[in-house]
Amino acid sequence: MKPPPMLGEAPIAATIISSPTQISNPMKSMDSIVSLCKRRGFLFQSSEIYGGVQGLWDYGPLGVELKRNLKDAWWRDMIAGHNELVSPAGAPSSFEMVGLDCTILMHPQVWKNSGHYDLFHDFMVDCRESKKRYRHDQVRGRFVEYRETKIFVTTLAEIEHEADEVRRRGMKYFKLRPKNADDLTVGDESITLDKLDSHDEVLGPDAKSLGTLTEPREFNLMFKTTLGALGGEEDTTFLRPETAQGIFVNFKNVLDSSRVKLPFGIGQVGKSFRNEITPRNFTFRSREFEQMEIEFFCHPSQSQAWYGYWRDRRLAWYKSLGLSDEALIMREHHTEELAHYSVGTADIEYAFPFLPEGEYGELEGIAHRGDFDLRSHMEGKLDPSTSPMTVELNENGKPKYRGSGKDLSYRDEESNEKFVPHVIEPSAGADRGVLAFLCEAFTEDEAPDEKGKMQTRTVMKLHPRLAPIKAAVFPLVKKDGMPEVAQEIYGSLKEHFNVFYDAKGAVGRRYRRQDEAGTPYCITVDGESLTDKTVTIRDRDTLEQTRVKIDEIVEVVRERVNE
Ligand code: GAP
């Protein structure tokens, strides 16, 4: 039997192999990320064979594992793995955490008292020429000037192409030839439509003439649907636009059935639906998406301290799974953005590559909601502009929307105090989380091929807990008993982790495919394995290879994956 080749990335006898070289300009392009997601089966457009539907996305074989791993990590770290007997670092005290799984369709009164029926709006503009509809704060553009005429040219192009697209549209509008390109001045600043005072000089994203966009109008984002066969107005309800309300309306059920005591949190993971006017930026703004929400109930006097705790804890969670410090910010809402009953709201934001440099997109909001939700479901929708809050009345002086009339207050057994708890709400998006982790993981570096020649390598540096496949098992060649040993190792690992067996093609190419899938470890059975019962385990990020005993491989993978 020939010894295995020792060049480049072939398996080795002891340790260490040439490490990857960072590419000098590590700019992540959204186009490359989207194309990798489709090519490798992370994400597909929904109903693609019929031309797709905007704002709806399907997760492919790798994507579904990644998203499940993210949701499982959240559930384990926030709910199932929470130790209620100790007070975690930074927390005012110990606390309890439980879970729920509520329906997507709920009683229509829920959405009236939550405020979504009246207030869940976005501003949209219509184009009288193209008959298209856009979200007012999402259409970007720049001022363009040609011979004393200044107009505002908009586009929906991705940010990396935005300036070029504005120039192209400006040239077309002024009927300029390429040789006159220097006569056109395009402004340096890209701004959104909502920053303008008038639409008179605006060239809409799909229009040929100026001033075709209407004034902004409100548009409710909830999807309407009908319960039952009769279809009267009273049978109309909505697909939930957030999972939170299922938690509020079950507050009493949870208290009565699980005997939790304040402070405690209820978590839920599930689908939410919003009829976004201009869904865009890949999965960032989708019409169907999943949320991971906690409603944390506490005594009003403690709510500020708990708000601080959850802000810090949630930010640390994203970092623990690999989002970098530089790409994350915590944006505290200004006091004028806050409802008066709230002591604070902060967004955890990420520097998604589709945003201009220095801009960030929301990953998760942490809101102090006071007692607004529980009291609204108890007494009828509260008017958040009143202080102390009172029930909103209709023109006859009656409650605009009737509450449930159920007592959603809490009695402290020790002090006998009865009060409506305050709520801290850390509300995360699973799809936005997946997108942020995909963007963070996407890396292009240079690594040696089997002949030792440096080649550009695309590698998804996903945290091992999130990686769709934890390890891949290869026989170096398809003979000499190597496949049989590799299959046995694969079988023993598969009992514990999602692992992948691959015997096809050159081993270097198999490594590359796993790098793109984000697989942190590749295990290779080579000639030595047959004699000394060891295999190589290759680290995706450092390319380091070490030899480990076959009968220790499950433990080695478990330790490295940290599950
Ligand atoms: N219960 C509070 C609530 O729903 P939100 O800020 O509207 O708050 C929470 O949503 C999170 O849900 C966001 O931070 C985001 O991660 C995710 N999310 C909201 N709308 C989304 C959309 N159209 N597509 C994908 N994720 C979305």
What can you tell me about this protein's structure?
With 563 residues, the protein is an alpha+beta fold. It has 14 helices and 31 strands. The strands form nine sheets. The protein has a seven-stranded mixed sheet. Strands 7, 8, 9, 10 and 11 form a five-stranded mixed sheet that branches. Strands 28-27-29-30-31 form a five-stranded mixed sheet, sandwiched between helices. Helix 2 packs across helix 10. The longest helix has 20 residues, at 61-80. It binds glycyl-adenosine-5'-phosphate (GAP). The site of glycyl-adenosine-5'-phosphate (GAP) has 19 residues, from strand 16, strand 19, strand 24 and helix 10. Glycyl-adenosine-5'-phosphate (GAP) is lined by residues 242, 244, 274, 276, 285-286, 289, 291, 293, 362-365, 425, 427-429, 431-432. It comes from Neorhodopirellula lusitana. Catalyzes the attachment of glycine to tRNA(Gly).
The overall average pLDDT, rounded, is 92
The global form is globular
User: Whole-number radius of gyration?
Assistant: 28 Å
C-alpha end-to-end distance = 38 Å
Structural class: alpha+beta
The description of the largest β-sheet is: 7 strands, mixed
Structure characteristics:
aa-tRNA-synth_II/BPL/LPL; single chain; aminoacyl-trna synthetase; 26% helix; tRNA-synt_gly; ATP-binding; globular; protein biosynthesis; disordered N terminus; binds glycyl-adenosine-5'-phosphate
